[in-house]
Fold this sequence. Notes:
The chain is an alpha/beta fold. It has helices at 10-21, 120-124, 155-169, 183-193, 211-228, 239-249, 273-276, 284-298, 312-315, 317-333; strands at 3-4, 51-58, 61-68, 74-78, 90-92, 113-116, 130-133, 175-180, 198-204, 257-260, 301-303. The chain has one domain (3-333): Alpha/Beta hydrolase fold, catalytic domain (Rossmann fold), CATH 3.40.50. The chain contains 10 helices and 11 strands.
Amino acid sequence: xxxxxxxxxxxxxxxxxxxxxxxxxxxxACGQSGAxxxxxxxxxxxxxxxxxxxxxxxxxRKIFSEWRGQGEPTVVLxxxxxxxxxxxxxxxxxxxxxxxxxxxxxxxGLGNVYLSDDGVFPSVARFARVLVYDRPGxxxxxxxxxxxxxxxxxxxxxxxxxxxxxxxSKLPAPYVLVCHSYGGLxxxxxxxxxxxxxxxxxxxxxTGAGMEEVLGPEKFAFWDEGHRVTSEGREGILVADxxxxxxxxxxxxxxxxxxxxxxxxxxxxxxxxxxxxxxxxLTFADWLAGQDLLASALGGEHVRKTSSGHLMMxxxxxxxxxxxxxxxxxxxxx
Length: 334
C-alpha cells in the first residue's frame, strides 16, 4: 500500500461544507414512466492502456478523465455535486477519531484525509477497468481542467457528456455505474436512456426513487432552489427539471444492483441554528425513507450498516469497493 498523507486543504473541505449549507448535499430521484430507448454506439472491446488527461468530447470541449485496469464490465464512477474525480482515491485516516464518531464528521470538514492505494478507484482497478472523471465545476486547481459550462446545468447535459466521454474513450460496454449523491440522478437517466449498455448499478448514498413524494411540494421546492446555488463557476443543478426528465425517460433496466446508505447524519451541532431550525431542511428520516424506496424500486440488496456519512467512498472505501466487486461478479455470472 502506498499513500500520500498530505491532508487535503481547506478548499477541499469547504467545498463539501458549502453543499450542506446550500441544502445541496443530498439529491432526490423521481418516479418512473414509459421508456424511450436511444442507441449508444458500442466501443471496440480491445485492451486499452491506462490513461490520465483530457478527452476531446466534441464541440470544442474536453473532459478530464482517468482509467486504469483491464477486464469487463467497465466500472464508471460518477461523483456527487461539486465532487472531483480525485475524491475516489482519498481515504479517511483509519486512526482518525472521526472513524468512531456517531455523526458525519467528514462532511462537516473534520478528519485527516489523504490519497491512498486503498481508495476506491485504485482498489477497483486491481480487478476491473474503472473510469473516473471531472464534470465541469468540480475542480478548479491543477492542470487538465475540464472545459467550463454555464451553471447550473441540466442533468441531460451531464448524461450527454458522459455518453460522449465513453464513446470518445472507446471504453467497451457494458458499464457498471457507481453513483454517489447527484451521480444517482445522472446514472438513473443514463440507464433509462441506454439500458442495453448498463450491466449493473451501485448507489452510494445516492438518489432515492420517490424522494419528491417523501418531501412533499413545499419542502421539495426548497430543496430544488438550494441545488441551483452556485458561485465562481461551481457546479449547480436543476433538480425539479431532472425529475421531469427521468419520469419521461422510462424505467430502469433490470440489472444487479446494490444500495449503500449512510448511517451517520450531519453534525447538526456544527451547523448554524437558522439552518437546523428551518422546517424545510432535510432530515435524516427523510433521507432514509428515500433510500428504502430506492432499494425497493431496484430490487437489489440494501446495505444500511456502512459506518459512514455521505462521503462514503472516503469514509468507508472498503464497503464501496466490496459492493462494486460483488456486482462485477454477478455480471460475470450472468
